[in-house]
Amino acid sequence: MKSYPEFIRERDDLNRTVMDYADTVIKRLYSLDAVAFRDGELDTATKDLIALAVSLALRCDDCVLYHLGRCAELSVPTGRVIEALGIASLIGGSITIPHLRRAIGAWHDILSRIAGNDFERLEAGAISAMTMAEGGVFESLQALCDFLKASVDRYGWVGFYLVDQGRQRDLVLGPYAGEPTEHTRISFGQGVCGMAAAEGKTFVVPDVSVESNYLSCSPLVSSEIVIPVWHGGILVGELDIDSHMKDAFCNRHRTFLERVAIHAAPLVGEASAARSGK
Ligand code: SME
């Protein structure tokens, strides 16, 4: 069975292709699906649990993964998911046991991916870490890095690179939390950080082992996200996070971290100017 993020990526890609070719029948089938799962006499979560059970009894792993993901998004408690899967296996018979095993493994995986990621609480915590820190901008950014690293298990190294405004096309290491890195100065274009700076857009690398333009900080790192930080219309730095987990940065993490980067932007702008002697 595919991992949940792999499945979602493949599903989204294929759905785009389906829509390129779809005739009226296929388009109606797709929109019927959306209508069927709206709140009605049964609420959406109950409908997803029913669909989950039917999918397991019919032994469709993709359908099981999809409805498990929906249950997680709707915060359906584990007990309900397990009871639905139990009934489905009872009706489906012992031939569904391999699917049941994969379904419970996938649920565990989905839960561990979202565990502890209450992004509203984390965003409030990130802002307060910056504002409560004593000292100047470097101390505030340090407090933010410490907070993020301590609050989210999968964030193994959290740091800022600052644009060297003297040399323009260079990044210098700013405050960070985690193991020291040899990459204290990175040119635009070099590594994931350099690419994000050169292109001015977020880079998510789900598997660093297949990224050719990657500067390794530790053999333990499996995935990375780099978010450019803009202030007053100019690029002033980047927020860089490494994880020991493969594919650690789903869209929910990306959105959260892009919001954090916006909150930190004035401080990063000041830090970049100070580091550049401006
Ligand atoms: N991996 C980064 C270098 C910075 S370290 O992760 C701290 C890159 O490829 O640019």
Explain this structure:
This protein is α+β, with helices and mostly antiparallel strands. It has 2 domains: 4-114, AhpD-like; 119-275, 2-Layer Sandwich (Beta-Lactamase), CATH 3.30.450.40. The protein is built from 10 helices and 6 strands. Strands 3-2-1-6-5-4 form a 6-stranded antiparallel β-sheet. Helix 7 packs parallel to helix 10 (251-275). The radius of gyration is 22 Å and the shape is elongated. The mean pLDDT is 92. The structure holds methionine sulfoxide. Methionine sulfoxide (SME) binds next to strand 1, helix 9 and strand 6.
**Main pleated sheet:** 6 strands, antiparallel
CATH class of the largest domain: Alpha Beta
CATH superfamily of the largest domain: GAF domain
* Rounded average pLDDT: 92
Topology:
Layout: H1 4-21, H2 24-36, H3 44-57, H4 61-73, H5 78-92, H6 97-114, H7 119-132, H8 137-151, E1 157-163, E2 170-177, E3 185-187, H9 191-199, E4 203-205, E5 223-231, E6 234-243, H10 251-275
Antiparallel strand pairs: 1-2, 1-6, 2-3, 4-5, 5-6
Helix pairs in contact: 3-4, 3-5, 4-6, 5-6, 7-8, 7-10, 8-10
List keywords for this structure.
single chain; 2 domains; 10 helices; Beta-Lactamase; six-stranded antiparallel sheet; AhpD-like; 278 residues; binds methionine sulfoxide; 6 strands; alpha+beta
Characterize this entry briefly:
The chain has 278 residues and is an alpha+beta fold. It has 10 helices and 6 strands. It starts with a helix and ends with a helix.
